[in-house]
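User: I'm writing a short methods note and want a consistent example. For Vitamin H transporter, I'll paste the sequence; you return only the C-alpha cells, no commentary, since I'll be parsing the reply automatically.
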Amino acid sequence: MFAGATSSLISAGLLKLDGKCGLAGWRWIFLVEGLITIFAAILFIMFIPKRAGDGSPLISMGRWSYFSPREKRIIIDRVLLDDPLKTREHIKITGRDIWKTVTQPTTLQHMFITLVAMSGFQGLNTYTPSMIKSFGFSAVRANALASVPVYASIVWTTILAYSSYVTRLLWWGKLDADCCRDKIGHRGPFVLLCITWNVISYACLRTSPTDASSWHKYSVIAIANVAYCSMHVLNVGWLSFYCKTPQERSISMALIVMSANLSGISGAQIFRSSDAPLYIHGLTAICALAAASWVQTLVLNLQYLFRRKKAQAGTV
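Assistant:
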C-alpha cells in the first residue's frame, strides 16, 4: 500500500518532466519506476537470506551471518511452532494436492470474493486520477491527491488486522494449544466490514451531486478509496487460517493472488472514456460488484459459523 501511494506521488513529480530529453511524462514514469523496481530486486537478492534460520545473504559469500547460532535456533523454533509440518524438508506439491485444494468449495468462495470485490476496486482505482482531474485539478495534482486515501488505507487496514485478532482474543479470554485455531484469526466479519464500506461509499459516489464543489467531489472519491485492497489483505489471512497443510496453504495463496491479478483485467474494462466525465455506467457497475461480494462474504461467514458450531457440538 505504501508503495502504491508513493508511486502516485513519484508519478506526480515525473509528469513535470514531460518533454525533457524528448520523452513524454508517462515514459519518464515507466523508466524511473522500472529502474527503482530493478534496483530493489537486486538489493533483495544480495542482502536477504534464502530461508528462515539462514542468516547469510548472498553478498556475505558465506563468511558472516546476520544471526548468532542461538538466534538461528529461535527463528527455526518459531517457524515450527507456527506449523509443525514444516519439519519435513523438501515438501512437494503433487497434482493430487492441487486437485484437492481447488475442489474445496470454501477455497473457491474465497477466490470469487476477491475476484468480484477487487474488480470493482481495480476499476475505480485505475480511473481515480482521471476522475479527480475531471473535477478541475491538474494532472500532476490529481496524481498527488490520488495517493492520500491510499496512505489512509495503511492505517485502516492495520487497525482492522489487529482488531480481527484482538477481538477474538478478548472474546475467549485466553488461549490454549488445542483450540488456538478456533479462538483467534476471526477475519470473516472484518472482511465483511471492509466490503460494507465499499458498498456504502460507492453508492455515495454514484449519487454524488454533479454541481458540488471540486473538493466535495474529491472528498467522496477519497473516502471510497480508503478501503483500498484491505478486504483482499484480510481475505488472504482468512483463507490461510483454515489451510491444514503447507501444500494446501501454498496452492490456496497462489489461487487467491491469481484472483486479485485477474480482477485487474476485468476491472480495467469497467470505466470507459465514452462514459466520462460522470462515469455513471462505471459507478453503477462497481456498486453492483460490491453488493455481490457482500452477499458472497456473508454466506461464507455463515458457513464457517455453522461449521464451528457443528465441530463444537461434536466435541462436547
